[in-house]
Amino acid sequence: MSGLKLIVMALVGTSLFVPSASASSLPSGTQPQLTVKLLNANGSGCRRHAGTRLPVDAHVLPSGTITVRYRDFSVSGNDYKSCVLFASVATPAGWTYQIPAVDNQATVTLDATETATLSTAMWFTGLKWTVRDTEKVVGPQTGAWNTSAVPHPAAWAPCGTSVNVSVAETMRVTGSPASNASLVATTFGPPKWRRC
User: Fold this and answer.
1) Helix count (H) and strand count (E) of the chain?
2) How many domains does the chain have?
């Protein structure tokens, strides 16, 4: 997938998707392109205040992986926060794709016996869940905490149409306010491809 090119744009205040040239037929031997537009982010973990930009930033890594970074997704003990990301995805005619994993980077500061739980869900609009996963860490622990949610079974996007993708993240922390967890980033991909 070294030739894979992903384009990510944050659209502020709109969910309008405009097809691009990547949604047309490809010349023989051309590597597929996936065009992704981050439409919106909603929830207590990514709350957007009036007149401000989206509370997340999307970046494309050299591998073609999309990484979404959160600016203020932090939870203290005996509380929880969530964030739902909405993205529009366009694929070339005759191709379909799957997202092999949703990886999360978090940090935790937990006293003994206190816990942090991260629940991840992903789905194509109008279809069943493709990812549902819950990971838990128990204190005492301080530092990085990484999770990976993999579709079981693997789910391919519908052929012949462009569908939105949604990802929901929910972080819960038990214990005193001294215990906390922060979701730093969510990473998707790189996608796998096959012809329809």
Assistant:
1) 0, 14
2) 1
CA atoms within 13 A on the CB side of 2: 0
Write the burial class of residue 147 (CB in 10 Å: 0-12 exposed, 13-18 middle, 19+ buried).
buried
Question: What CATH number does residue 139 fall under?
Answer: 2.60.120
- Whether 67 and 187 have beta carbons less than 8 Å apart is answered as yes
pLDDT tens digits, one per residue of 7-17: 333 333 323 22
Which pair of structure tokens corresponds to residue 9?
């744009």
Asked whether the bond before 27 is cis by omega within 30 degrees of 0, the reply is no
Tell me which amino acid residue 63 is: S
How many angstroms separate the Cα of 46 from the Cα of each of 33, 68, 171, 186? 28, 11, 12, 13
**Which tens digit of pLDDT belongs to each residue from 32-81?**
777 777 888 899 998 876 556 667 887 766 555 778 899 889 999 999 99
| Structural domain of 95 | 5-195
